[in-house]
Write a structure and sequence with these properties.
This protein has 6 helices and no strands. With 96 residues, the protein is mainly α. The longest helix has 13 residues. The model has no long low-confidence stretch (mean pLDDT 93).
């Protein structure tokens, strides 16, 4: 997603795990145990560790991701289109 931190609280952590990966893993964790795009990353275990340590930011990250630039969100290695990423983020927010 780039070499800069996101300009919001906890953004440095989100940059480490990638916004699209975060949404994918959150969706697996909270909604659908059959959603496995997040597993396509070799560093998934490290990212899960960051995910588990940053729960206080998760809701605000989902809100930020919904408004992110589609071109940036499409630059991911887990084959999730920006529109799908945003749809999943909205579903996660609506389920809270």
């Amino acid at each position: 997603m780039g070499s800069h931190d996101f300009n919001f609280e906890g953004g440095a952590y989100l940059r480490k795990i990638c916004a699209t990966w975060f949404v994918s893993y959150s969706y697996f964790f909270c909604k659908d145990k059959n959603h496995f795009n997040w597993k396509k990353i070799k560093t998934a275990k490290l990212r899960i560790s960051v995910f588990n340590r940053t729960t206080e930011y998760h809701e605000s990250w989902l809100k930020q991701i919904i408004n992110m630039n589609d071109k940036l969100l499409n630059r991911n290695k887990i084959n999730l289109d920006a529109s799908v990423t945003k749809k999943l983020a909205k579903e996660l927010l609506n389920g809270k």
